[in-house]
Amino acid sequence: MTATxxxxxxxxxxxxxxxxxxxxxxxxRPEAIHALSSLARDYLGTSxxxxxxxxQVSRLRSGLSNLFNLPxxxxxxxxxxxxxxxWDAASFGLIExxxxxxxxxxxxxxxxxxxxxAPHLAEPQIISSEPGTHPMxxxxxxxxxxxxxxxxxxxxxxxxxxxxxxxLVLVDATSAAGAVLWNPSEVDCYYFAPQKALASDGGLxxxxxxxxxxxxxxxxCSGDRWIPASLDLGIALTNSxxxxxYNTPSLATILLAAExxxxxxxxxxxxxxxxxxxxxxxxxxxxxxxxSFTQPFVAEAGQRSPVVCTIDFDGVEADAIxxxxxxxxxxxxxxxxxxxxxxxxxxxxxxxxPDDVRALCACIDYVVESLT
Length: 372
Prior knowledge:
- This protein is α/β, with parallel strands linked by helices.
- The protein contains eleven helices and twelve strands.
- The radius of gyration is 21 Å and the shape is globular.
- The model has no long low-confidence stretch (mean pLDDT 97).
């Protein structure tokens, strides 16, 4: 840090009450931490196959079904490893042979790379667009369409639209699940990890699966295809129906996620969560549009994410702003490293108070004025 940066101290009355704005792992609500602490003695350090833990898994699975308003026949499946592991599992247990992938940022491209490397699958169809935009799927002779609801690296929200009735629609919803409305009629598998909008820790994956997706899992996982047990979605399905995982999960992650899901459901559900996130993100986009030194990275307003805001800066170093914010207790506003732009990336998940977002904007103004 430069001498100028280290000399900047934000006035106490200007700072947000909670300075966590990371895009994942994200802010964990203090109320959830308190709930974990109060239950820890009888919950942490116990077998994940006992009722104490199974009850929390059941609570979480039921809560997610209610949150997403899932139709009859849909199931919530979970397993260890996060979204990265789920891509590997899906290459065995959901894609039969051929898939189409939409790529428009770092995370949306990773599933396509998994499929490209899989010797038992065909070369995937890849439809790409420049970062800051998103492409649309095209009806094709494939059995699976891989979409991304919210590209965390660029702050782009994509439209979920079923291109064909013939293939499964698999949606990476890691930074959208629990914060953005979606229509199950357009999707067959909506999968995600809990360390973003669900305000928990990482290490688990969840998947809301339609009857068609469940049928595909059962078909592929009971056939001749070799599948490592830890990546076998059939095993995950069987264990999930018993409210457990194949191997030991993070118990803290499960309970923290369940607390967030219950909080959202009790507050008004997914519609309430999205409105809360849009209040925060609209604050940032409006703020950026009114400043001479900032502009939203995503040019098309309809594609701007309500949960991850990417803001370009001109005439001032964004990394310097982040460094000053960090020493003043405002964390994780740095841009996504591989995007390589002079920008801040700010999360506005449900757990983040809209008043704190307004305070953050005021703090950035203060820092920019001090640096220039």
